[in-house]
Structures are given as C-alpha cells and as structure tokens.
Amino acid sequence: MPVARRHIRLAALLTVLAAGSAGVLAVAQGQESAADRAAAGPRTPQTPALGASTTGGSVLQIVAHPDDDLFFMNPDLVRSVLAGTAVTTTYLTSGEADGINQAGGNLKDPAQPADHAAYAEARQNGIRSAYAQMATGDRTSAWKRTSIPTAGGGFAEVDVLVAKPEINLVWLQMREAGSIGADRPESMRGLWDGRIPALGSQLTSGTPVRQSFTYTKDQAVATIAGILERYKPTTIRMQDPTPGKFPKDGKITDHQDHMYGARFAQAAAERYAAVADRPHFSVQNYLGYLNSALPHVLDPATVETKLGFLKTYAWMDRENHCGSPAGCGDRKVAAKPTGRDWVHSMRYSRGDHTSWLTEGRAGRLWAFSVLDGHMAFWTRTGPQAEWAGPTLMPGSGIDPGASAATLPDGRVAVLGTRTVLGERPQDYRREVVYAVQSAPDGPFEAWQSLGTPEAADQDGTSAISAPAVAVGPDGKVTAYVRDSARTLRASEQQPDGGFGPWARLGGEDLQSDPVTATDAAGRRHVYATTAGTVVAWIQPSPAAPLLGPFPTQLPPTTVPLTATPDGEGVRLWFRRPDSGTVRTALVTASGTTAPHISTVTEAGGRAGYGAVSVAGRLLSGRAESGTAGTSAVGGPPSWNESRMLYAGAPASILEPAGAATTIVLGLDAELHVTSTLPTKDPTRPTHTTWRPAIRP
Fold it and tell me: In the record, which residues are listed under signal peptide (predicted)?
C-alpha cells in the first residue's frame, strides 16, 4: 500500500478512535441527522455524571518472537496505538533463528554469513520501524534504548519511542528454539519441561545490555512477572498456551516457542495477580499458525494496512534508514510478508463468545468475565438501578471466557475453564469448572470441577474450548466442549449435583466454541463451526437425546458463532470471510433427519471481526475500526461506532420493557454498557452512548 494512501486510512481510523461523538459512524456516515433523531424516538435515560466511554487503560503484549505481534495481534495492536493507549510489547526471545538475514524466493538476496547477534538486531530494527510507523507515520522516528535489571537476575532492553513515550518495547533476549517443532532442549520448551536447568541469553549486536545471563524456569517466570509489575497493564495479550495438535501426525499446530512462551506468560500473570498495588487486568489469547488453515477474517482494506506494517518490518526497500550495520529489518519475511496467509486473519483463541450475560430473578442482570485470573461478576437489580461490581469469586487460574445460565428456580450458574499449572510439567491441565448460587440472588458456592475430556496434556496440549451451557426443564445443567481431537463432548449433571463422564457426540474438525439455544418447542440445539461450514446437533423432541452431527451446508464462516432462539427454530449469526459482514440463517428442526436451513442473508454490520451479540433487532460487535459498534438487523450494512476498543466479545439481552442492553469489557478492565430502546422503524434503532457501568 503506498505510504500516502496508508496515511489517509490511518487518519480516518484515528478520527473514529479519538474524535467525534460516540454512537456515530464517523467518516463513513458523518454525524447523526435530524431525520435520524426523529425516527429514533425517545432516548434511553443516561446518568449525566458518567461520561461517554472511550478507550482507556493500558496494554501489555507478551510474544515469543519479533513479528508475532505483527502477524497475530494486528489489527488490535495498531488500533490500540492509534487510540493513544499505553502499549508495551515484551519479546521473550531474540528470534535469532539460523542467524542469516537473507530473503529467499524471488528476491534472492546475496548470500549472507550466519551472525545470530546481528540478525536478532536486524529484527529489532524492523520492529522499531514498524511501531514508529504505526504510532507516528514515520518509520525513522527515534527511540531511546536502555538496559534494566530484571526480577529474575538478568537484564532486559527497554526501548521508548521518543515522540510517543507511551509506546515501549521490552526485549528479554532469551534464546529461541530455532525450530517450529523439532526436539530442541535448549529452548523455552526444554526449560518448562525441566530438561535443562537454565536457558541462556542471545544478546543482539546493538543492545545496551552488556552482560550475558541465564534464567531458571522460576527466574524466567519472575522476570515476566516483574515486567507486568513495572507496567501494571489492564489488558494482557499473549499467545495460545494450548494450541492443540494435528490429528494425523500429532504435531503441535503452532510454533513451540509460541505455546511455551504463553505458558510462561500464564505463570507470570498468576504470580503478578498476587501483587497488591495494581489495577484489575484481563487476558486475551491469540491464535497463531492455525490461522493459515482457516477462512480469512479481515476485510481487504484492513489487510492492506496490516501488510504495510509487515513490509516495513521486512525492510523491503533495503535503504539503510536506521543506520545499523546489522540491517533495518527481517529479510526472511521480505520474501513473503503475508506469512502463510496470516496477514488475512486475527483470531482470539479464547473468550470470543457472547454467553456471559444472563437475566436472573425479577429482571436482575448478571454479567461475568475474568479479572486477575478470577471469575468476576457485576449485577444490576433493575432497569433503573445502577450496576454493582466487580466481585471476584474465590479460586484462581480461571481462563478467559465465561458462560452463564439461569436455572428454573432463579439461581444463576457460571461455567468456565481453569488452568492448573501444577508442580511438575506433566501436571499442567485445563479443566471445566462450575459454580452456582446457593439461593436466588445469594452467594456463589465453591467451584466444582467437571474434569476434562483429555487424558493428559501431552495428548493434545489440553486444547479444550470454553464450555457452552444448557439447562433442562428439570434444572439439570449440561456442559458442551470441543476437545483437542476437535470433536464435541458433553457432561450432564447428575441427581446428586455432580457431573457425569464426558460423553462423545462426534463431529470432526470443530474449530469454534460450541453454542447452544433452545427453540420454542423446547428442543435443544448445539452448533459448532468447522473450517468449511457449520454442523448441528438437535433434539428431535424436548426429552430426547441430541441427534447429530447434522450437516447444514452453510458456507464458511470466520469461526465465531452465535445462536439465538427464533420462533420454532434457532437463528445463527456469523461473519463472512474476507469481509466481516454479519450474516444469518434460521435452522429449523426436522425430527430425526437433517434440519431445514433458510437462505443465508446479510444482517448488517459491514466489516469488523469477532463474535457478534444479538438482542431483539440490535446487533453488537467489533466494527470496522475495531471499536464497539451496534447495527440494526436488516438495516443499512454499517455500524454505529463508539470510540471504545474492548476485549473479547460483547453480550446483550432483551429486557422485558423492550430495551436491548449490551455490555463489553473495555481495555481498561471495566464494564461498559449501552441500552437501545425499540422504535417505530426497527431498522433504525436509537443511537445511545456507551457508558462505564460503574461510577468512578
């Protein structure tokens, strides 16, 4: 993308993120017109003391290698930078590989000698250039490089962008594995598994760090925890600690450094959570190499912008703009800056579902998310009442993502997964957990473990999904998860309140978290996406066992899926690949045979990514700019965009009076809410403002 065009697009994005009135689709639609206001009808009352929500808090990213952030965390990264958020990225290894900074393929660079320190320095130079380009539009914008001692007894390089000092890069400079999956004991994997007592450093040729060092496993965890304590982020981004394995050859679906680096980050976040003087934080995990096997997520314009930063990192023009003898970027990436199709996608590996809000007794709302490794909840007693929270439930190690449900007697239940790090490497596991109120509106009982369908971590890296939850007329709960073999499993509650073994329900190549809904006839539906379609399990009658998996013949999706009851059927909501446009189809049960599927229609919400939430005629999701947006079902294909970036997915509910209430967890780890009243024209909902749910 030419630099001038990229600047125009970034300027437009910055306008949405940092200026204009919340609730307006800036740039694309301009300001709300008088006709819009007249058609909208009465406004939802708002508390004047609470200002409109904007992007707040701070972000700390932890990645294994230079470029993991550019491939797998963008466009979230650039949008955080443009919003003025304090962003720090920590690189665990130097990414020295074979030490040869040479482009292959059609570029055919001259042969280069191996120089691990110089190649690692060139990769640093490329990252600094890309971040400077994101933040200032000038890849040569200056950095201040310093050395600091770490909590693990070593040293780290800290780079501060002079023009935008809220942008920091931290280089821990541990050695990388040097292979995607081969057995390399001198690596983070070897250190985690106890095969080596300590892992050494690989200093870059230009680093201000002058003394080599080694880290034991505990020292490495302490070092990362110390970086978290230094910056005190409200959002922690990391890679996927449980990426799974390919069923045919048993190989990990991601780079071993990505997986084990994320486990070190998990352990560090758990240690950091014990620090007293810090804000609440949430965690967002990102999918890695597996993106290349799945449909494209991002729209063409976003891809073009993302690719521009990768080309800056890859030093495509070979001009010595950085003044470093090591080179100004990573020429290995120059041969294919799109990666293995990674430039077209960005996915969350956990927490991308919309089932974390439920209505309890007498219209009381309960919202659940994970803060500081604990399940947290917020509650609101009625439409005119204020939200209260967050209350952190006892028990640590809870993973991002929550599924909530209300039992027939009015009690609220919540399910999630919990990572147990264990004393030994082989003790690492992820299990499903369940908590329920002792009485309606009462306290939550202790967590109950449902165990895991996995025999051992080594079998599939504990790669189970977040659970979907269904409640029968008798109040019994059933949890559904995707296991590491990418099939559907279920555990049903027993008469004594415990849960039975994990039953096998079949399916193959399941990618999404499963979703569930019950139709008007009382039949339970369960759905999951694959790389190419959606599959279904449906009860032929309310008391019957689930049948399936049934093919739906639906087209490919970007993976996240939402299901809502719709008359005699269940309506599915998903995004179109290479576009982000929201689509929908109605699924109707057909007894013991495959269900009837309606024609797929465009539902609204042009571009964007991630799961969408639906309440009545209102869609909520991540808009083209990455901010929280709303759109009318069947209305114009556009978003009413806020000025707020958020983590995970939105959740929404249709209240008895007809208002659609939608919530998100902001990058500030705070709950934000908006309510939209029904109008005479359902395709033109009221434009309301996002507000913090809790008074400061």
Answer: 1-26
